[in-house]
């Protein structure tokens, strides 16, 4: 084992580690730099003269919008019914016998 060179696996691991390190360094360099200044071209254009023109009458046709039919429901409660009765008291009296109370204990 000591007399052999690096194995294929160790070479692959070292290559992947180097590639990852290189990509990380490149990403940090790109992220840290300032963007290049933008160049704006300004040219002098003549200002427009008159852009308004008179036009004849224009007819605009719009589709008619028909509103949905409205349904109105009214509920009414009838007035309370009044009944009048004449009652004449009787001259005879009825006496009810006393009722017993259950569950009451008298000592």
Please, could you describe this protein's structure?
The protein has one helix spanning 8-32. The chain is flat, with a radius of gyration of 53 Å. The protein is mainly α.
Report on the biggest sheet.
none
Show unreliable segments.
none
- Kindly state the mean pLDDT as a whole number? 77
Element-by-element helix/strand order = H
Strand content: under 5%
Coarse morphology: flat
Helix content: 10-25%
Radius of gyration: 53 Å
Structural classification: mainly alpha
In DSSP terms (H or I, runs of 4 or more residues), the helix count works out at: 1
In total, the number of strands is: 0
| CA(first)-CA(last) distance | 114 Å
Summed up, what is this model?
This protein is mostly helical and 107 residues long. It contains 1 helix and no strands. It is flat.
